[in-house]
Structure formats: structure tokens, C-alpha cells
From TrEMBL, chains A, B:
Pfam families: TetR_C_11, TetR_N
Protein source organism: Leucobacter luti
Keyword Transcription regulation: yes
Residue intervals of the HTH tetR-type domain: 12-72
Gene3D superfamilies: Homeodomain-like (1.10.10.60), Tetracycline Repressor, domain 2 (1.10.357.10)
Keywords (A to Z) from UniProt: DNA-binding, Transcription, Transcription regulation
DNA-binding region: 35-54
Name of the featured protein: TetR family transcriptional regulator
Domain of life: Bacteria
An example Gene Ontology molecular-function term: DNA-binding transcription factor activity
Amino acid sequence: MPPTAPSRRRNEELLSAIHEATLAELAERGFSGVTFEGVARRARTSKPVLYRRYPSRAELVLAAVHAREPLPVLDAPTGELRADLLSLFSAHEARYHRLGAGVIRGLLAELPQERANETLAAGSILTHTTLRALVAQARADGKLGPREVPDAVLDTPIALLRHEFLMLGRVPSRAQVEEILDLIYLPLLRLHSGAAAPSGR
Amino acid sequence: MPPTAPSRRRNEELLSAIHEATLAELAERGFSGVTFEGVARRARTSKPVLYRRYPSRAELVLAAVHAREPLPVLDAPTGELRADLLSLFSAHEARYHRLGAGVIRGLLAELPQERANETLAAGSILTHTTLRALVAQARADGKLGPREVPDAVLDTPIALLRHEFLMLGRVPSRAQVEEILDLIYLPLLRLHSGAAAPSGR
DNA sequence: AGAATAAGATACGCGCCGTATCTTATCCGC
DNA sequence: GCGGATAAGATACGGCGCGTATCTTATTCT
């Protein structure tokens, strides 16, 4: 008979099975259908093993999502401001789409306020930093005016995209993303950086 | 002995007791702590009575909130664009504040998508229509340029305020509201309506 | 080797779900 | 007023997931 019959998983192997099971349950049953019991069954483990790691359903889901869905990074800035912004926003939008609005809403509702903020912030700080860098580059290149752009302005598109997706439940179309960019964001950047002629073109 | 001992409530009286109990539970235990059983107990009625009226917890809470939190109205447009927008935003913000982010997040997570959208749209005085009217007035008065402002631009502050409150969990301060207005919205309106000099005051 | 650690199995009481059944107070039309 | 329709209210049900406690046993570290 096989001597290694009752092989017992640990650490990464186990953790990975848990995350996988969680994501599968998430996909099949939606956020509210994710259950400690269900995940334990599916990952062929037991509830205590889960409870030893995660204090709540929300944390479990969050961990699984983070493990499999790293934050989007902007791979190669071309130096062309509009193109870079567009690809950044698209990456964001794709991430939202993969996750689904239901998951994020569920997390938002069930995570403690503090934790939800951290999490959102982690996502948006990265973006904030990226945006800041892109804009700084464009200013240095003379594509924008010389003045510093206020943070509130810098973060506008994050808020707009999130709102569209989370509140209204639609994944922004390419056209919408471009609209935000051309009608709102780029004009604001030009204006606040003090670029030459904000009018025609 | 009193002949009207087992007085049995109906219609408004009953409904009102249900709403009151729901709001009380909401306040004490938060959205996720609201329970059909708990509300029934507190309203001194029974679960079937509740289930005959509301199909889900979210609908129960929604009804209670709507019953006790009617829409604020924008009292008097002064014709002064900035002042009117400011008071509109403040009213909006005050409403969110009374409700609390947790409740809205819970509703968003548990209501079906369609219903959530209706509710968000209907529940807000800071509507597209209101903004459109104010801006149209300002344009007619020559306070802005003559051109029509695109919808995406018109709705910007709705998204920004909601994002701030719901995602980040903070009630926007007066200063933040003014920032949105002065750094983002008014400039955009001037720009898109084709107002004369968008630069230094 | 032995000790420490953590996986895994099982079982518990609890609270809430959503529904079915039944009684009985109240309302409405005649 | 009376009598039938209506809906409140009480109760009970099986089911499920929660969160925890207890115990055994495989694995790893020293």
C-alpha cells in the first residue's frame, strides 16, 4: 500500500488551495455565497484551519483576491501623456472587470471601515503616485504648463472611474474612458499646470 | 377590565412601528446587524408580517430609510451659480452624513443592481436634472459661456462627492467641497461652455 | 530521537433564514 | 349591526452557517 497516503498540506500549498477554493466559490456563488464552510469543503480542509488565518469572510476573500490579482502597473510609459494615461486607465478598468462589482461592493460593506480604507488607499496610492509621475514627466517635457497640479485634481479620474464602475455597475467603455480623459482630465491638467492655450484643440 | 386589551395594529400604525424598529436596529447594530427576527421582536410583531411586505433585508431597510428620510429640496436658487451649487452639494453631503456610509454600502451590496441604480438616482437631490437646470440658468444669464456642457462634465461632482463619501468613508469637509467646486467643477463649466477668460479671476 | 507546531476531524450550541399552519382581531359591504 | 373577507400575530419547522472547543496525528525543527 502507498506509504504516503495521508499527506498533509502545509503553508504555501495549503494556502494556495484555500485561495483557489475561495475564488472558485466567489465565481460560482458570488460574494454573499462565500462561506467558511463551503471554502473548507472545497479546499478539502476544515473550518478551524481557515479561522486560524482569517477573522472574517471579507478578509478571506480579500486575501484570495490579492494573491491572484496583483495591482496593475503601468508597464512602459511611452512619454506620450494621453496614451500613457489611457493605458493606465484601461489596466484599471480591466482589473475591475475581472473582479466584478459585486465583490468590491461586498468587501466594502463587510470590511471594517479602517480596513476598507487601507485597501482602497493601497490601490489608489499606487495610482496616485503613477499619475503624479506621469504628470511630472509631461510638465518637465513641456507638454503641460510648469505649475504643480493639486492632488484633488490629480486624483479626479480615479474617483470618476470607480464611481462609474462601483456605483453604476457598469464597466466603463473605451469611449467613456476617453471622454473622461479628453473632456475632463486633460483640460484640468492643462488648466492647473498653466499650459498655454486651453481653448481650440 | 379594559375591553381593548389585545389591540391589533394595522396599516400605517403597523408600518410605522416596523420602520421605527428597523431604524433603531440599524442605529444600534449597523446594517449587517439588522435581522428580520430582530426587527420583528422590536416592533412587537412577527416575521411573517415582515415577509409579507419585504422580500429582503435590503428592501426592508430601504423602505424604512425612505419613510423617515425624505429628500431635501433645494430651497431657493439665488441665481448665483457658485452659491447655489455649494448649497446643493452641502444638502447632498448632509443627507449622506445622516444616513451613514455603512447603510449605503450595505444597500449597494445587497440590493439587486437595477434596484440600487434606481435608488441612487432617485435618492439624490444632486441630480443630473438639477445641475442641468442650474447651469442652463447661468448660461442664459451670461455667467457662463453659451455652449452646451456635455453630460459627462455635468455629472462630475456627483461622482466626486459620492466617491469621497462612500469609498473613502469620509464626509467631505466644507473645504473639500469648495475645492471640488473651485478647482474642478467651475473651471470645467467655464471651459466647456466657452466662457471668456478662464485664467486669473 | 523528542518536542513543538499546526493540520485536520468532529461536534457543539446558537441565531437567523424562509416558510407553513393556525387562530383571531379588525375591517368592509350589505 | 352581522358575516364574510382580510390580514395580524403566534408558533413551529428543517436547514444552514457561525464561531469555538476538543482531540488526534502528521510534519518540522532542534
